[in-house]
């Protein structure tokens, strides 16, 4: 059995260096599954990192939680329920997780909403629970989260501005904003890839394209004739 202290240190490092790439999330999730006998300790590491890290890393940890739960549910479906401890502890602490990820600056509301929908779809969270958490998200939303400080309403008095942000909220620096933009771009890229991904066996892609294509109408014939006429003129001219 691996040394518990070493496992915690390694897992904490993985969480602290998470990014938007699938490999990063996959690596951390597999490490947690590999050491599932220490699920309580590793779950506490997740909560600790959420409390101490920056906004971008908190968003990545939320997506890591989504990835970990998907793997745990998949193992459970295949007859191995040993990883479901992570799921049960998430269900117990979901409010604390959501509040930490969103933070006082309210910049991760969309991230949390997306993950909550996934967890609801996996039957990890009940619909009523998600609705209750939605009320928390609405209370944290701000118009310009990247510029928000400690006040969730996006307002602060001159006194607060002089003392610095309250409740741990921080105005994002240029580097953090650029990092967030790049990571959001990576996530959107993966989302588009997952939408278009199909099984390589048989004619699944052909059948899907056939079903999605609309019937040929009169406009299509008109367009085809116009294209053909344009090609003839180009050939005659050249």
Summarize the structure.
This protein is 70% helix and 0% strand. With 238 residues, the chain is mainly α.
Number of strands: 0
Strand content: under 5%
Radius of gyration, taken over Cα atoms and rounded to an integer in Å: 24 Å
Structural class: mainly alpha
- What would the CATH topology of the domain at 2-142 be? Serine Threonine Protein Phosphatase 5, Tetratricopeptide repeat
Question: Helicity level, as a percent range?
Answer: over 70%
CATH class of the domain at 2-142: Mainly Alpha
Low-confidence spans: 149-169
Overall 3D shape: elongated
Q: Quick check: average pLDDT?
A: 81
The CATH architecture category of the domain at 2-142 equals Alpha Horseshoe
Describe the model:
By secondary structure, this protein is mostly helical. It has a domain at 2-142: Alpha Horseshoe (Serine Threonine Protein Phosphatase 5, Tetratricopeptide repeat), CATH 1.25.40.90. 70% of the residues lie in helices and 0% in strands. The chain has 11 helices and no strands. Residues 149-169 have low confidence and may be disordered. Residues 3-141 form the CID domain. Residues 149-174 are annotated as: Disordered. InterPro entries: CID_dom, Ctk3, Ctk3_C, Ctk3_N, ENTH_VHS. One of its GO terms (cellular component) is CTDK-1 complex.
